[in-house]
Amino acid sequence: MAVLDVLGVNVHIEGDGAETVVMVPGWPDTYRLWDRQVEALKDRYRCVRFTLPGFDKEKPRKAYTLDEHIAFMDAVIARVSPGKQVIFLLHDWGCIFGYQYYLRNRDKVAKIIGVDVGDPSSTLRALTAREKLIAFWYQTWNAFAWKIGGVIGDRMMHAMAHWGRAPSDPAQITSRMGYPYWMLWFGGRDSYNRHGRRFEPECPMLFIYGCRKPLRFHSPAWAEKLAAKPGNEVVEFDTGHWVMSQQPERFNEVVRKWLIEH
């Protein structure tokens, strides 16, 4: 495995395939979220993964704007796949940042695999009042965990990760992973809400989601419209939010089959 330093973030590379799959995790995960997927794909694809900027507890504490995330991803792609399109494999906040990167750099992304998070604007309109309340509660909790920081902030983040049944190593979870929620709700001129664009991909897309969770992260209407386009596919799993960890064998089979066929 090779490790590159890109703008202060460690980027891990495994596999020797002709096509490059860039794997982006979300909250409260690290690059290790994709261990099982790398094992399943590295014989055919070059797998590139990293922990989101600002999430690594060994790195400086910093809140990144949407433009900074897009610039970082662009720097990664320029290093690992110069002049050639990549495939995105995205989850949670990785979906948010990856989708927005694609909308600004359509020529650099060949295919997208989105896991459990769809277009945010249509998702919000589709949520029930109860789901909106749950979303507001956990997101503002994580936002204030970031703002408070220190031991108390870390404990708040651990409590939320435990409630959400996150599969990540607890030793790697800290309050610094809450900054995307702070930027979402309290980022002012840099709020992600102010700069995000509606996501309707033109490239082939596979969308995978779990149906056993307290609230949805996609609109059924958006998924139905996505599935109607040739080359796209929408697959439901009987899991929670972390589909790739809860049913890794089936997940890998679905991903690999779709990639080969499209």
In terms of per-residue confidence, which ranges show pLDDT below 50 for 5 or more consecutive residues? none
CATH arch. level architecture: 3-Layer(aba) Sandwich
Tell me the name of the CATH homologous superfamily.
Answer: Alpha/Beta hydrolase fold, catalytic domain
Q: How many domains make up the coordinates?
A: 1
Radius of gyration based on Cα positions: 17 Å
Task: Name the overall outline.
Answer: globular
Termini gap: 27 Å
How is the main sheet built?
8 strands, mixed
* CATH class category: Alpha Beta
Order of helices and strands: EEEHEHEHEHHHHHEHEHH
Task: Give the overall pLDDT as a whole number.
Answer: 96
Helix content: 40-55%
Supply the helix-strand structural class: alpha/beta
Quantity of strands, as a count: 8
The multimeric state of the shown protein is single chain
Widest sheet: strand ordering: 1-2-4-3-5-6-7-8
Provide tags for this entry.
262 residues, alpha/beta, Rossmann fold, eight-stranded mixed sheet, 11 helices, 43% helix, globular
Please give a structural write-up.
This protein is of the alpha/beta class. The chain has one domain: Alpha/Beta hydrolase fold, catalytic domain (Rossmann fold), CATH 3.40.50.1820. Helices cover 43% and strands 18% of the residues. The protein is built from eleven helices and eight strands. It has helices spanning 35-41, 66-80, 93-104, 120-126, 129-148, 150-163, 179-186, 192-195, 220-227, 243-246, 248-261; strands at residues 2-6, 9-14, 19-24, 45-50, 86-91, 109-115, 205-210, 233-237. It has an eight-stranded mixed beta sheet, sandwiched between helices. Helix 5 (129-148) runs antiparallel to helix 6 and helix 5 packs across helix 7. The radius of gyration is 17 Å and the shape is globular. The two termini are 27 Å apart. The relative contact order is 0.16. The mean pLDDT is 96.
